[in-house]
Design goal:
This protein is α+β, with helices and mostly antiparallel strands and 306 residues long. The chain has helices at residues 20-41, 45-122, 293-305; strands at 127-135, 143-146, 159-161, 166-173, 178-182, 189-194, 200-206, 213-220, 230-233, 245-254, 260-267, 276-280. The strands form 2 sheets. It has a 6-stranded antiparallel barrel.
Length: 306
């Protein structure tokens, strides 16, 4: 077949139409026209509103995971900060309560120290202040340990006072600490004087009754003793200075089957809560020594000759 007889035009199925450049120019011009028309006359506003209304449910559903993650992170962050703030507030409240308790304790200690200093001014015997460290481990005795010992000049037998009265007596002395036996110990006894009547007696420790008290023994059933009487040190034992508060009579039982009355006393000192005490030197150290028997006999002979 001769080549000149062939049809070189493309079949209708492969026809391309306008060129790509022409389409681009037309679409660009149309877009420019629509933009100018929308800017001037807002012709696309209804279409935009319709499209936004139609797409709103899809947008709402698409934003839920994002908002959930964002709000979840904010919730946990705020929860963490709230817990941290609560912990800080609790620590601050605990510190404030501790300070409040310390303030109350310091106020009580200051009041006791003032009373102790006033008592020290009334007592002429030399002494020094000490602090109670702890109670002894023996449950059958009433003793405490103070922070002064041989190094500070503490002697065995020294009377110990608090702001209210006589607390006890030093029974053991160590290099740095000392052991004080309280008045309520079952083996402790102290000569006392009834401030109302002037009668002398001896108060013994009686720790078994009511958790710690004193008892006046060998007092006649018809003796002039009343509840409320104040007992002070008599000073005849050579240990305690006279006139120091010891106890208050709480109960007097006059029994018909016995010639002695049962008299119970409560100590004036804080035997269970003393913190600061005053240790005095025994008055026996300031009493002149007893003359020897030979000197006494010679003095008696001289007096007889005269």
């Amino acid at each position: 077949m001769p080549l000149g007889t062939l049809d070189r035009t493309p079949p209708p199925f492969f026809r391309q139409g306008a060129s790509a450049l022409s389409k681009l120019m037309v679409c660009g011009a149309l877009a420019l026209f629509l933009m100018v028309a929308d800017l001037r006359f807002r012709v696309a506003q209804p279409v935009r509103a319709i499209v936004a209304t139609v797409l709103y449910p899809a947008q709402w559903l698409a934003l839920r995971p994002v908002l959930l993650v964002r709000y979840g992170a904010e919730y946990f962050e705020s929860l963490k900060s709230a817990q941290a703030g609560e912990d800080a507030a609790r620590r601050k409240l605990t510190q404030q309560s501790q300070r409040a308790n310390q303030v109350e304790q310091l106020a009580v200690e200051n009041e006791r120290l003032r009373k102790l200093l006033e008592l020290r001014q009334r007592v002429t015997a030399p002494g020094q202040a000490a602090e109670v460290l702890y109670d002894t481990a023996d449950p059958y005795t009433r003793r405490v340990v103070i922070d002064k010992g041989m190094a500070q000049g503490i002697e065995a037998g020294s009377p110990v006072l608090d702001e209210s009265g006589v607390l006890g007596q030093v029974t053991r002395v160590y290099p740095l600490v000392s052991e004080v036996t309280l008045l309520t110990d079952r083996e402790q006894a102290i000569p006392v004087l009834n401030a109302r009547t002037g009668a002398r007696s001896v108060a013994y420790g009686d720790p078994s009754s009511r958790g710690g008290s004193l008892e006046l023994r060998f007092m006649a059933g018809n003796s002039d003793v009343k509840p409320g009487d104040i007992l002070t040190t008599s000073g005849v034992d050579g240990v305690y200075p006279p006139g120091l508060p010891v106890a208050r009579i709480e109960k007097v039982e006059r029994r018909a089957d016995s010639g002695f009355a049962r008299i119970t006393c409560s100590p004036q000192a804080l035997v269970d809560g003393a913190r600061h005490v005053m240790v005095l030197s025994p008055i026996a150290a300031r009493i002149p020594p007893r003359p020897a028997p030979e000197d006494a006999a010679a003095s008696a002979k001289k007096g007889a000759r005269k």
